[in-house]
Every structure is written in C-alpha cells, then in structure tokens.
Amino acid sequence: MQKEKLRSFEIAAAEISFLIHATEDKDRVINLISSILLVDKHEFESENLLGHWGNEIAMIKCKLKGKFANHLASTILNSLDTYDRKKMLYSLDDYVDDKGTLHLRLDKQRICESKIQLSDIDSIKIKFKPRLFFSRFKQDYVLEFRRLLGSND
Q1: Partner of 14 for a Cys bridge, out of 19, 52, 69, 133, CB 3.0 to 4.6 A?
Q2: What is the reported pTM?
Q3: How far apart are CA 139 and CA 144, in angstroms?
Q4: Which DSSP state fits 9?
C-alpha cells in the first residue's frame, strides 16, 4: 500500500549531505550510512574542506532521482519510530518549504548504530523534492507528505 501512495505522489529527487570530521573514519561512516539508507556507496561524492581551526572536514553529497529517490523516501519514512513520526506529523509545516521540498535531518551517530532518527545535532541533511503535481501551494504538499507519514499508524 505504501508503494501505491508513493506512485501517486512521487519524489522527483533527493539530496543527501553531511560532514565527516578528521577524527572519523570516512570510509566506515559512508559504508554505514549507505547500508542503512540503502544507497549505493559509489553515489556519494566527497569534497575536502578546512574547518574554522584549520581542521580537515569532508563534505559528502549524494543526489538521487526517480525511483532511487522514491526508494530512499520510503526507507526513511517507514523506519521512523512512533515518536519521530508523530513529531513530524504535528509540525510538518516546519519540514516543508514553499516549493514543497521536505527537509529532514537524521542523527548521523544513530545511523551508525543502525537506527534512523531525527536530530538537529551532527546530522545528515536530506531534501526530498516532489514531482510537481496538481498544485503549487505548500499546504497541498504538506497534506501529501502527511498522508505518506500517517499511512503506517
């Protein structure tokens, strides 16, 4: 039933981004994140940056389209626990921008422990851009995301 709902309201693209600090094992973190989010580790691109104090930081990014973006959305939304699901349902307006893009932040440390959980600290940022459909109003997108989230309750 979830797949039918994602077909009627499709995610056109997804963007994943996160930082890896010099104290973290870059390959290990990417492997863990790719295995939990079910994204091929070769899809991730790395850009080396310097932090405020001259420390090395890697900016990791991944862009997915079509069925791969839909699959990521399904994986994440189906893996949220009851608390995170209800938190999103009650404040979905805060997660969706005026263009209908859903913005999530997942706890990087918890993902490395095989748990998908919302967090604003040391997070993996994910943007889900929906395929434009019947409306350009934010509230219509919010309703569609609410329907997807509420489908597992």
Answers
A1: 69
A2: 0.85
A3: 9
A4: S
pLDDT at 145 exceeding the cut of 90: no
Token pair for residue 25? 């094992």
The number of distinct structural domains making up the chain is 1
**Ramachandran region of residue 16, left (φ > 0), alpha (ψ -120 to 50) or beta?**
beta
Q: How confident is the model at residue 2 (pLDDT cuts 50, 70, 90)?
A: very low
List, in sequence order, every beta strand (DSSP E) within the chain. 11-21, 45-50, 56-65, 102-107, 123-130
Q: Is the pLDDT of residue 4 over 50?
A: no
What confidence category does residue 140 fall into, taking pLDDT thresholds of 50, 70 and 90?
A: confident
Report the CATH number at residue 124: 3.30.1440.10
What's the domain range around 109?
2-150
pLDDT of amino acid 7: 42
Contacts of 130 (CB under 8 A, 6+ apart): 9, 10, 11, 12, 100, 101, 102, 141, 144
